[in-house]
Amino acid sequence: LLKPSQAQTLKGRRVLITAGPTHEPIDPVRYIANRSSGKQGYAIATAAAAAGAEVVLVSGPVNLPDPAGVRTIRVEAARDMLAEVERALPADIAIFAAAVADWRVANAGAQKIKKTAHGMPPLDMVENPDILATIARRASNRPPLVIGFAAETEHVADNAAAKLARKGCDWIVANDVSPATGIMGGDSNAVQVFMKDHAAPEIWPAMSKDEVAARLIARIAETFSPTESIPRP
Ligand code: CTP
Ligand code: CA
């Protein structure tokens, strides 16, 4: 029996993936970031390529090599990530695994901020564009399957179900990223998959991030019948 990853189940499909954190500049030498390692998104890109898909990975700054057989585009800030995602469309499947910074510094300095007698100057924070919601709610070129992640430290199921509705995506892969779980930066993951129009989530047991990726790609392939043709603009 072929493992789904070896079965070319996504041959001919174009898959767009975001991964990693974003870095939001404060000044030329400092930034705001988060603890995302990019491992889960990179594992999904690798699994999608192994399943025969044409994969574009838009990645924030991570310490991981470009996955083999994947077109990897490196970006720093959320706005650059959105621009590259839009350039990469159309896609059959979009998977937003990046831990996008929710806010950026509106008054980022062109020069290094210096210490003064008055202490640190205040940073004006403004909200970043929501890349997942922007793509999921597009009138044209919306990928037929749009998948988001929900990283939560509490009330995982309630928050994930609310996110599914709020973002306009088709699936939300939710995980508990409390420090005690070791998921943020670690090699294993335990997820619940919320699907639009499904009453209950699929609760997957704890497994490696590579296994989550393989299972997610297999689950995606099941939803696309081999003969179904995706309309292209
Ligand atoms: N996301 C995105 N762009 C943003 C923020 C989030 O594309 N500016 C995507 C993430 O890649 C993920 C999903 O939205 O697929 C949920 O991210 P999350 O941070 O859990 O949700 P938020 O809507 O930002 O809500 P909060 O951080 O307040 O929980
Ligand atoms: Ca967020």
Written overview of the protein:
There is one protein chain. An eight-stranded mixed beta sheet has the order 5-4-1-6-9-10-12-13, sandwiched between helices. The protein has a two-stranded antiparallel sheet with strand order 2-3. The chain is 24% helix and 25% strand. α4 links the parallel β9 (145-152) and β10. The protein is of the alpha/beta class and 233 residues long. It is built from five helices and 14 strands. Bound molecules: cytidine-5'-triphosphate and calcium ion (CA). CTP binds at residues 102, 112, 129-132, 149, 163, 167. In the N-terminal section; belongs to the HFCD (homo-oligomeric flavin containing Cys decarboxylase) superfamily. This is Coenzyme A biosynthesis bifunctional protein CoaBC.
Keywords:
binds cytidine-5'-triphosphate, two-stranded antiparallel sheet, alpha/beta, 8-stranded mixed beta sheet, binds calcium ion, 24% helix
| Biggest sheet features | 8 strands, mixed
Low-confidence stretches: none
Q: Which small molecules are bound?
A: cytidine-5'-triphosphate, calcium ion
How many helix segments?
5
Strand order of the largest sheet: 5-4-1-6-9-10-12-13
Order of helices and strands: EEEHEEHEEEHEHEEEEEH
Report strand %.
Answer: 15-25%
Task: Report the helical percentage.
Answer: 10-25%
- By secondary-structure content and strand pairing, the structural class works out as alpha/beta
Number of strands: 14
Shape: globular
Q: What is the overall pLDDT average?
A: 92
Radius of gyration of CA atoms, rounded to a whole number: 18 Å
Q: Roughly how many Å apart are the termini?
A: 37 Å
Family: In the N-terminal section; belongs to the HFCD (homo-oligomeric flavin containing Cys decarboxylase) superfamily. In the C-terminal section; belongs to the PPC synthetase family.
Function: Catalyzes two sequential steps in the biosynthesis of coenzyme A. In the first step cysteine is conjugated to 4'-phosphopantothenate to form 4-phosphopantothenoylcysteine. In the second step the latter compound is decarboxylated to form 4'-phosphopantotheine.
Organism: Afipia carboxydohydrogena (Pseudomonas carboxydohydrogena)
GO molecular function, one term: phosphopantothenate--cysteine ligase activity
